[in-house]
Amino acid sequence: MNREELILRELHLYPLWKRREQAVPDAVTVAAKKTTMLKIENAENKIQENEIPVSKTPESKNLTDIHSFDWPQLKSAVKNCTACALRAGCTQTVLGVGAERADWLFVGEASGIEEDAQGEPFVGQAGVLLNNMLTAIKLKRGTNVYLTNVVKCRSFENRTPAPDEISQCLPYLERQIALIRPKLIVALGQVASTTLLVREGSLASLRGEVHDYHGIPLIATYHPAHLLRAPQNKAHAWQDLRLAVATMQSRAVS
Ligand code: SF4
Question: Ligand 1 mean position to 172 CA, how many Å?
Fold first, then answer.
């Protein structure tokens, strides 16, 4: 059993995650090309908290000053937020979990029923799978990793959050990113990917390359909840994780 197979077995996915012939180009090659294009070797110096724009939501008094919040202010604001209809259907808001200055940021869509009950993102079976994905790339929940969602409340019956709900909640995520200052963002699922990249498109069309979020490289991949329903996509997700690791490594040596 080679090293990659050992890692996949650590994910409890081996031998399911078999690489396909038409898989995306070699992760290291893609990463080197994209990181050159993005000139991310200069990004770390450029990423200052206030360089990341914050959406303005003048229709909501609660959200207008988010761009200047520190962590205690942000936590309080999210805890007490009632800016959109989602709040009426959830038990509590869930801001995120992990190191508040982390190199790695993983962004999902919204809380599910278990996240809503426990007040932490990515718990339950999807959380177990995400933990295994982190382990496979030598990461650990809470250590140099921050986990959050685009919207901080549970979506009714797990439906996709509506555009107005996303736009209401987005300033919180933008402020989180400004405070965390990650070196790389992994967007989990189509909602997180299209929201952060401000573009339309299927997840399939967005994954397999390094995008740019205001100077921070961003990798789009499948949400672990989707992977539980569609395990045939785990091989693609593994490719994306390899691309993320290669991108981070290329930043470390530049
Ligand atoms: Fe506030 Fe976001 Fe919850 Fe809507 S989803 S109530 S904007 S925290």
Answer: 9
Ligand 1 site, CB within 6 A: 78, 81-84, 86-87, 93, 151-153, 165, 168-169
Q: How far is CA 97 from CA 75, 121, 126, 153, 218, in A?
A: 11, 7, 15, 14, 19
Residue 253: closest CA among 183, 177, 178: 183
Q: State how far Cα 188 lies from the chain centre.
A: 5
| Helix, coil or strand: residue 127 | helix
Candidates 241, 252, 253; CA nearest to 27 is 241
Which of 75, 109, 165, when mutated, tests ligand 1's pocket best, judged by the most ligand atoms within 8 Å of its CB?
165
- Confirm if 124 and 114 have CB atoms less than 8 A apart: yes
Give the other-Cβ count within 10 Å of 10's Cβ: 13
What's the whole-number mean pLDDT along residues 138-161? Answer: 93
At 5 the pLDDT is 65
Ligand 1, atom 8: nearest CA belongs to which residue?
152
Ligand 1 atom, smallest distance to 84 CA: 4
Among 12-26, 35-49, 114-128, the minimum mean pLDDT is found in 35-49
